[in-house]
Amino acid sequence: MSKVWALAGLVVWELYRRKDFYVLFVLTALITVLMGSAGLLHGVRAVRYVEELCLLLIWISALVIAVTTTARQLPAEREHRTLFPLLAKPVTRTEVILGKALGCWVATGLCLVVFYLFFGLVSAVREQAWPLASSLQALWLHWWMLAVVVAMSLLGSLLFATPAANATVQFLVAGGILLVGRHLNTVALGLPEPGQTLIYGLYFAIPHLELFDVRDLIVHDWAPVPWWACAAATLYAAAYAAAFLVLAAVTFRRQPLQ
Amino acid sequence: MRTPLLVMVFLLTFCFSLVTWLKPALARHLPDTARAESLLGTALGDSRRLFATHCFFKADRYLHSGFYPTLFDDRTLLAEKHLAGPHDDHDDAADNPAHRRQAQPTPDAELGYGFLGPPRDWLDRLGRYFFPSRHTHLEGKAEAGELVPWLRVAAALDPHRIETYLVTAYWLRRHLEQPEAALQILREGWRANPESYEILFELGRSFEEDRQDPVRARNLYELSLRKWEKRQDGVREADSQTYALLVAHLARLAEQEGRSAEAIGYFERLEKVSPDPARIRERLDELRRSR
Fold first, then answer.
1. Are B246 and B228 in contact (CB under 8 A)?
2. How far apart are CA B118 and CA B171, in angstroms?
3. pLDDT band at B100, cuts 50/70/90?
4. With an 8 Å Cβ cutoff, is B62 touching chain A?
5. How many CB pairs below 8 Å do chains A and B form together?
6. Residue A168: pLDDT over 90
7. 20 to 30 A from B145, CA-CA: which of A5, A135, A147, B85?
8. pLDDT tens-digit map of B47-75
9. Among partner residues A47, A223, A229, which is closest to B126 by beta-carbon distance?
């Protein structure tokens, strides 16, 4: 396990040195502050539109960081020819996959902490309140959603020829699931057979990333999600992330290095 | 290599020349209001109407604290017209205990599933804990302000959508206690839509009820009535609801100011379109007796 953590540490260090996170964070902060300071009508106080915008930017930024960071890990090792000396050490290919995935996941988690601290600051300043339990749940669920995205992107980096192609496919898949994933069952029920079974099958097969999106609950001041539901969602994400990582490990073991 | 380049240059030159000829020709035929576009209007073109509709629905979504049908849901099941307007009183909705957000979001709400229907599978049941799945409304003055940004953006994107001004003014007057801001919005709307009898009627109500200025209110109602008559000429299904409201307000003002003959005239007009003509007839008889 120490080898996996050592590899993960390298990935975190790499994200720390790169500019992706800083640029996205500054952009998020700048747009949120600008929109928050926009004058609407004298005497009318509105907070939720700023919170919604801030959370949307956080979701986009986190997805970009997770996908781009993960998609370039293995191709970069191959391109720089550092994969051979790495595998010449007493490290198995499975440990490389696990290390890379853990590193990307931890790195995106650290970014999320900074983003959600900023969101908390925005809520505290604008609303004079910070729903701590809801924010922690949102952060936790968001992080687990990214675990699935990281695992998918790592598998994609072994299947697609370039990191750009992989990233594009991952954005399309994640975006598609987030937008229509929840409604596939409704669509399926309106279709004739065999379309109904096919779409319903797809509905159960895809990882429902939208399950982890509790932005509306935070923005509209709903009570936190029941903890058992939160735990169930965590197990759901862990199962999908594990499945994708197993597939990635098997693919990597069977793939020639060059 | 040179031929495609020359073709490209030719096409670009042709396009540029076409624009310099078309733009002034189009501008001559467009009305003044359409020509006076903002930077946003120029940048987005006609698509801004689409965004304006989106922002308008977004305000309705905020009113329901995020519980709102998507493209895939049955919108008819959210039957009430929630954002309301000059014809609606929506106060009772916020007082309804069924509309309060106290408990955690739950798919087992005793109040029914709304447009979502009962959960179709275990994933659907679990998923409903993670988004607003109960019908609620914004409560109180502090929360009602949350709708305004979206309505303001909707008005900026599509200044010719009259409903946006009416709804914004309604919320500002009735829920936010901001009559001056409502007046400002309605004036903006009137500038963009000078022929709108709906905005004039709402302006009249603002002057009558908020500023207690019956003279200006009457002038605005009369202007609104003239615009209504002008607009309804030859129209098969006239907007009788606004007409009834206009005539009722004018009749009441005339009665208050002691102009009985005028009041009787308006009540006679109201009797023809009122859903309760017997009551209007009683009122007319009272007025005739008192003369």
1. yes
2. 33
3. very low
4. yes
5. 103
6. yes
7. A135
8. 888 888 888 888 888 888 888 888 787 66
9. A229
Poorest-confidence range of A57-71, A94-108, A170-184, B164-178? B164-178
Instruction: Tell me the residue range of the domain where A143 lies.
Output: 2-254
> ω before A207 within 30° of 0 (cis)?
no
Question: Which tokens hold the place of A228?
Answer: 């058992």
pLDDT at B78 over 70: no
What is this model's ipTM? 0.83
Residues of A in contact with B126 (CB under 8 A): 211, 229, 232-233
pLDDT at A89 over 70: yes
User: Which pLDDT belongs to residue B64?
Assistant: 84
Total tally of structural domains belonging to chain A: 1
**Considering only alpha carbons, which residue of chain A is nearest residue B175?**
A44
For residue B196, give how far its alpha carbon lies from the nearest alpha carbon of chain A (Å). 23
- Asked if pLDDT for residue A42 goes beyond 60, the answer is no
Q: Which of residues 207-246 of B touch A (CB under 8 A)?
A: none
8 A C-beta contact, residue B171 and residue B151: yes
